[in-house]
What does this fold into?
Amino acid sequence: MRFGTFFFFQAAPGLTHADVVHRELEQMEWTEELGFDQIWLTEHHFIDYGLAVDPASLAAAAASRTRRVRIGLAAAILPFHHPLRLAEQMALIDIISRGRLDVGVGRGNRPAEFKGTTSRSRKTASASTRPCDIILKAWTEERFTHEGRFYTDPRGPRDPQALAEAAPAHLPGLRQRGRHRELGRARLAHAELAAHGPGRSARQSAQ
It folds into this structure.
């Protein structure tokens, strides 16, 4: 059994937003010092429920402040990101953390958070497996192209390349029709799988 800490960056009464952010960053360091195994981060927008508006920035900050604990996203909300950009960010953070990154994605569930986004973002919430396809291609293929309803990506060599020997990463978070949808699991020494995180040894499942 492993234990971790989950950070929402909640805007508590009586604290400035700067106080909240710096206190929780400090608690990430305590997570490692106290012997916990994981740090988990989330993403929220336009609500006091959480100031975690940029999971990539927070994951990079956690990676720079720790050396041992794994760093997980639960989850990056796909409709708020271009999938190729998210794949690049996660690959870079995988390098910064020396392979400690676990990637989780989701569709989002709070109407208030979608009000400040584009209409395309609201539509893509119902088609989140397509961004997953792009992310997985970016992590596993040297070159690829993707043509779809919401995204068209001509692609050259993938850059940056995540760590070749990264520990298993996860890609959960897509709930469809009340059931879990398994996209695949694999562990390998080279990039030849249907689903995995930034590193080359990985597991991926989608809800």
Strands lie at 4-7, 38-41, 70-73, 76-77, 101-102, 105-106, 145-147, 152-154, 185-186, 202-203. The domain at 4-203 is CATH 3.20.20.30 (TIM Barrel). DSSP finds six helices and ten strands in the chain. The chain has one domain: 4-203.
